[in-house]
Amino acid sequence: MSSDNWEKLLTAFLDINHSEIELLRTVSKDVLSLHQSFVSCDLTDASKRIYGDNERLRKAYSYYYLFVNIPKLVYIFERYRRFLTTPEQVLDIGTGPGTAALGMLSVMRQAGRSKTSVNIDLVDKSREFAKLSRFLIDRFRRHLNVDGKTRYSVSDILRPEFPFKEFYDLIMMTNILSEFNTGDGFRECRRLINKVLRQDGHLLLMEPGSVSHSRRMLIFRDYLTANGWHVIAPCPSSQPCPALKNPRDWCHMRIPWSPSPHIIGIDERTGFKKSQLSFSYCLLARNERAATDHPGNNRFVVVSDLRKSKGRMSIFLCHLGEKKEAVLLNRQMTDQNAVFSRLERYNEILLNDVEIKGDKLIINKLSSIVPLKTNEEFA
User: Fold this and answer.
1) Could you tell me if 345 and 278 lie in one domain?
2) In angstroms, rounded to a whole number, what is the distance separating the alpha carbons of residues 361 and 328?
3) What is the mean pLDDT of residues 307-321?
C-alpha cells in the first residue's frame, strides 16, 4: 500500500478535515503539550502516560503522531520483510492508536502471500486508545482483505498476570520504553517477552530518534543481548552497542517524508516543520537460528551521514561492538571502492583489505566495498 493510500484511509477513518482552522488550532496546542512530555523521556508517572484517556490529547496524538510514526514502521517492515511479514500471531504492547499494527498491515498485503491472515492482540493502559486501535485495525483489515482476529486488553504488562494465553511470532514495542525504569521495569518486560514469544519469534523495538530515547532503547537492547538474545538489525552483531560508550552518542535512522495537508497545518502552528523523520529501532530474535543475517568479520553497518571535504570523504561504521571512522581519499578511489561515495545510514556492506590506523579505517586502492542490498534480498 502506498503512503497516499494509508494516509487517505486514516484521514477518512478519523474524520480529519484539514480545512477546519479551529480544529487544527486546538489540536496544535495539544500536540505541543504532548511533545513536552515526550521530550522529557519520562512517562513513568501514571498521570503523564495515560494521556489516551484524555479526549483532547488522544485526538491530538491520533491526528498527528499516528501519521508521523506509521512511515517509520512501513520502512522497517519493507526493509526486513523476510522476518516481519509472515507472522500468524502478533502482540502489540503499548499499542496507542494501533500505530505498529497499522504499519505492519500496510506492508503485509504486498508481501506476495496468496492468503493473508494474522491475529493481533493489543495491550494498552488506556481503554480509549485500545478501543480506537481495534476500530482502526479492523477497518484496515476489511479494506486490505486481511483475515484474522483483533483483541485488546486494558492492562499493565508489568503485572504478574498477562491477559492473553497465546504464544506470539512477533512482539512489537514502539515508543513505550520511557514508561519503564531501567531496573525492575526492564526485568519484568523481559520476563513477559520470554514467557509469551515463541522460540523462533522476533521482537521489534522502535523509539524516537532523540538522544535520550535512542540511548534508552540501546540500553534495553544490550540488556536483552546480555541475557542470550540476538540482534538481526540494524546492528552488524549482538555485541554491546559502542554508542553507549559516549554519553553524547546515539544511533538513529532518518528517512525522507512528505507530510499530509493536515500535518502541514499543525506544523505551521507548532514550528515542527521537518522534511525527514528520525527514529531508532532494533529487531531481535530469541535464538540464533531465527537471527539469520550476513555473518562474518568483514560486515559493517553505516551509522552516520557521509561527510565530504576537499580531497577526502569519511563516514562512521559499526563493526563487532566498535564504532570507527572510515576515510577514503579521492585519489585512492577505484571501481572496487567507489560505492563509498554513495553510502547512507544503515547501509550494510562487506569491507575487505582496509588499513587500520588507530581508531580509523583507511580505504585504499586495494580495498573493496560490497553493498548488501537488504531491501531486494528480503523482498
Assistant:
1) no
2) 9
3) 94
Alpha carbons 92 and 130: distance in angstroms, whole number: 11
CB atoms within 10 A of CB 123: 23
The SS3 call for residue 276 is strand
Side chain identity, residue 53: D
State the Cα–Cα distance between residues 362 and 364, nearest whole angstrom.
6
> Cα–Cα distances in Å, from 375 out to 32, 240, 378?
36, 26, 5
pTM given for the model: 0.92
Pair 242, 322: CB distance under 8 Å: yes
Place of cell 513536552: 36
Closest residue by Cα to residue 16 from 268, 269, 275, 264: 264
Q: Find cell 494498552 and name the residue.
A: 124
Number of Cβ within a 10 Å radius of residue 314: 18
Average pLDDT of span 288-314: 82
What confidence category does residue 338 fall into, taking pLDDT thresholds of 50, 70 and 90? Answer: very high
- Say whether both 259 and 305 belong to one domain: no
Count of domains forming the chain: 2
Which three three-digit cell numbers place residue 5?
493510500
pLDDT of res. 112? 52
Residue 212 shares a structural domain with residue 331: no
Query: Residues 160, 303: one domain?
Result: no
Q: What is the DSSP string of 161-229?
A: S-S----EEEEEEES-GGGS-TTHHHHHHHHHHHHHEEEEEEEEEEEESSHHHHHHHHHHHHHHHHTT-
Give me 147's grid cell: 483475515
Check if the beta carbon of residue 238 is closer than 8 Å to that of residue 317. no
In the chain, % helix, strand, coil (3-state, to 5) comes to: 40, 25, 35
